[in-house]
């Protein structure tokens, strides 16, 4: 993150096609979102747009001004739909829970239309909440999927907002029957969460399906065998008006969605968060190897 | 605006205040955090600054260093302490791992106003009064205890008061590293789109800050050894009283 | 992209890889030079704009507080109250009005700087000796000329002291701008925190301090140039 | 020239600084206001240039009511020397003195020339002092700059509030003498405030003695003041040695000289000029340890004074 | 009692404040150091109680070298009245005066009794002033508290740095008189600093005139100083009217009185006591506008003084 300024340089130096005007991308700043935003940036720049990327700490920083002053956002199906749902129907509204990306996108169509947002093609790559344990815990207790923990009592290290969420604490206890003896709000895929699990302070930690650092830390993800996670497939969200003015954006971004898979994304994430390769370089590298650039 | 009615709704709901993650509990955590950080800063900074003030030298360096210390983003400091292999307790809470990191970061944040004011306060005790004390045969310690300290008290206290409010207001960022305190309500609120809740947290923080300020101002007045003649600059309320940080820096420039 | 070459040869982990994760890593500074420079420049911009805006708001307020003593408590109180609004809340609240732009952070930081600026300006104006003011009026200075030619220059030392504290604090505060995409070095710090990137975190924090020291010295220098009469005037 | 009629000042907190004051100052006259601390001298002075607005009464300068004039314009026509000097610490000495001419809109060159002239007039060499800052001058030097600054616009009226208050007695005497010499040349209308009766008697053409609350206890020439104090307050204020003080304000009257005949040259000390005061005569007499002092007009002896003669002269002076 | 031998002080920045000073003060004597500003008077005084360490020479009190004594102990035996008074603003008047006895470890009750006694001695009613804070007192009252505080430990030696500097001339004279009266009873060894020659002449048993750089220009009784200035600097410093000043320090010598016979009662003004000074005699003479003044011893007229008689007496006084 933090390289929003330099992306401007990229846009001016490598624009090849005809001038298509200005385009603003907003994205969350965590590693994977920043990486995907950078891929959008490079592709759209090549297509002739003057791209401005804004990376922010959380979705609420841009959701209020999208699509008014933000044109394109690398999103997750469940994320954007449920965010709009909460905004439209209050934060107690029942969330959309479909496990399939395309289905969820269809379910949320009305909300998206009302907001003036159009989702392009849904990628097969998906980034949902995942829960991990140490390799040792897995081996010792024979635990490989979440249902293996049913009836067991664990301490959960998770994001601030985990409590009461169906895709997190509530789902784990209600659907899987896991006894959460204590919830430590140490953050989503944060170092403190890893450390807490590794140190044995907690047994179960929250991260994402595309976390590239787990293997290097001796941690393993447990399979979500009862599908409590709503679909979080990667998808470009574009302002409807902007899209009708610039229909070529879809032609630029849809191939990228087709090329991305969960495995590839996990590998790319690992390069960034473990080897700390420059996200720009990683993006270029990937786009080139996929023949998109 | 809906946000405001939400805020009011959140604040007026009894359930918001009670329980493990209720406002009261978090407020208590943050008060504990603030108080402890302040005590740490006082223990670290006050004796040093008072002594340098008594000697009348070396203090400008301390003042300038502690002032530049302000530039270290508390957030970064916090992150450094949290990501360091920190020997904190495993238990979570005001004195848990993140709590301790926050304590240290906040204590460092509290140092500049405390050091600056204490140093300047002692040094600026009028020269004629100091000389009178010497002239009547007081030892260094007697002079410090009976003359310099009482006369420095108001300014020292105003430094502590400044530090108190700043630390309290800054303590919310503990939430950024999953630390304790009311910051959690704010981040949680914004993270879950419950803006009313987030703003409610901010409101509580601001109100408590004002209360602390008023209480500290009253304490400062009560502890002032010289009953003030009505003077041009009033020390009461929010006005903060005498030139503190600003005045001291003016000298460091002249020197 | 030139960085590709280096990435390819990274067979053994660099000193900033997550596996080594050293606090100080020259390789990191070298590899991410461009990012670091960009972040520093942005940081500097935000700080300077914020302080300038802060001054522009604080000065009339200080004048008003001095002119109407009954408003003084209100003005100082309000500027202190602003300070107690957590930045975590203030910045997101500003976004709907100011957009995802640098000005959001600039306005936020300027508001926070008011506490110190208003106070020190008031103190500065008050530090002008009464006899000087009286003799100026007695010689026939009108109100505005008195302010510009006499009071302002004489208030400068105290005002500049406040400016120094405000500037240094603003350098630190700017980092929080990362919440809304414009945090300068704060963007690096935030990334460093969330990815446990020690070299990045440390480099950004150190740069903050360096930036503050440089700005501080610059103000001292400017003050030295602007106030020749204070030189050698030892008490 | 300056006329105060029924002037009073009550401060917001109820303090009555000046009750009801009538005071006339003739053009070219040097009037001294003297009185104990807090009796309203400064208040009176500042009402003249409207730094303080009177609550009752009227003040006229040259027949014009000062309250009808724009205060800023009014003040530019009145030189003002403040008790604490009040130089601008951030400006060099020359710039300080140039202030008022520049306010008038004079050219820099003119103002500069005038300022240098004035610095020389008050005994400060421009070459040495022009570029210094006030804090680089001694107290006495600063006082002179204050006077020079007030004179810079060549105002017909000069108000001076304890202008020699901040320096030690030796420098003070020198500054007083210099100002008297200056005033002889300039002939300004001056109102000077002091709380030192010696200074009042020495400097004033007329002296106004204030009692607490701005009451005018006596307004008279120094000789009259010392010789016939109007009441006990004034008598007490001018002090029990006021007889001695009178010596200083009483000129030698040739009528009281004794003839030179029969005085041996050895008995004569240094001679003094007939324009001297009786105090100078007595001082020479005592200093030289002689019984008589010769009095000259030009190069010509016109008589001698003995202690008894001095005493007679003093007694006679009141009878006039 | 106090003996300075070859004492010199050079400050760190090279300023030579005092060159090489020899000065003796007898027990019970009141010595005044006088001189222009910056001549090293305060420096000299502070070297005596080691607030400033001399760079050369030795200082003895009662035969003991002060540098060999623990400075804290030394200072407890020396009362010190500082130029700027230096009361403790956070303590009430009574507590201020009690400070030194309490430092000595005296009981609160004793210290309190002593402090009240001293307050009464310097003319401050304890019932009224004991519980005030310094800022609630006038300048003159504060000065008195400063003196009382210095006297509280009943030190044999008293150092006073311009103790009457901060008040206006009228109050100043009163304080001087009061202190002289006090000193007659207490008989302390006092070193007093002033820059006012009048004060020096009035107060001192002996006066030390300092020239710049701490040079001792003359050390003599007031009468001698005025009568026979050692050099031009002293002559200039004591002023051209020093003859008049001598009147104030010269007592009436009965030998110069003229007989009462032949003087009509109408010619006599108020009578004065034979213990008065010549100045008082002359002042009465001039005030009452008479030719002669009667001199009494008790209720008995012992003679009269005329101006010529006063003059003769003054001339004779130097011949003694
Ligand atoms: N702004 C004010 N408000 C209330 N009272 C005042 C104010 N200024 C002066 N006074 C009072 O008015 C009276 C006269 O004050 P003024 O300054 O004229 O005295 P002064 O004769 O100049 O005395 P000094 O010789 O001490 O300068 C004093 O009692 C003083 O306390
Ligand atoms: N700490 C110091 N460092 C350098 N020079 C000093 C210091 N203190 C005093 N002086 C200088 O020493 C000289 C004598 O100072 P001192 O205070 O003894 O003078 P003084 O006779 O008491 O004068 P005044 O009548 O003004 O009080 C002065 O020239 C003064 O500037
Ligand atoms: Mg006055
Ligand atoms: Mg002195």
From TrEMBL, chain B:
CDD domains for the chain: TM_PBP2
PROSITE patterns found in the cross-reference section: ABC_TM1
Residue ranges constituting the ABC transmembrane type-1 domain according to the UniProt record: 27-216
Location of region: Disordered: 227-255
Predominant subcellular localization, coarse grouping: membrane
Subcellular localization: Cell membrane; Membrane
Source taxon at top rank: Bacteria
Membrane-topology annotation of the record: Multi-pass membrane protein
Keyword flag Membrane: yes
Transmembrane segments: 31-51, 71-88, 100-122, 155-178, 199-219
InterPro entries from the UniProt entry: ABC_transp_perm/SBD, MetI-like, MetI-like_sf
Entry's family note: Belongs to the binding-protein-dependent transport system permease family.
Full protein name: Osmoprotectant transport system permease protein
Lineage: Bacteria, Bacillati, Actinomycetota, Actinomycetes, Propionibacteriales
TrEMBL record, chain C:
Transmembrane in keyword set: yes
The ABC transmembrane type-1 domain, residue ranges: 40-219
Record keywords, A-Z: Membrane, Transmembrane, Transmembrane helix, Transport
One GO term of the biological process aspect: transmembrane transport
UniProt-listed InterPro entries: ABC_transp_perm/SBD (IPR051204), MetI-like (IPR000515), MetI-like_sf (IPR035906)
Annotated GO CC locations: plasma membrane
Origin superkingdom: Bacteria
SUPFAM superfamilies: MetI-like
Localisation: Cell membrane; Membrane
Keyword check for Repeat: no
CDD domains: TM_PBP2
Bilayer-crossing regions: 41-63, 75-94, 100-118, 154-182, 202-226
Pfam families recorded: BPD_transp_1
Similarity comment: Belongs to the binding-protein-dependent transport system permease family.
Protein name: Osmoprotectant transport system permease protein
Provenance organism: Nocardioides ginsengisegetis
From TrEMBL, chains D, E:
Origin organism lineage: Bacteria, Bacillati, Actinomycetota, Actinomycetes, Propionibacteriales
InterPro entries reported in the protein's UniProt record: AAA+_ATPase (IPR003593), ABC_transporter-like_ATP-bd (IPR003439), ABC_transporter-like_CS (IPR017871), P-loop_NTPase (IPR027417)
Similarity comment: family membership: Belongs to the ABC transporter superfamily.
Coiled-coil region: none
ABC transporter domain location: 2-238
A family per Pfam: ABC_tran
Organism for this UniProt entry: Nocardioides ginsengisegetis
EC numbers, comma separated: 7.6.2.9
Record's keyword terms, sorted: ATP-binding, Nucleotide-binding, Transport
Enzyme's top EC category: translocase
Gene Ontology MF terms in the entry: ABC-type quaternary ammonium compound transporting activity; ATP binding; ATP hydrolysis activity
PROSITE patterns: ABC_TRANSPORTER_1, ABC_TRANSPORTER_2
Protein's recorded name: ABC-type quaternary amine transporter
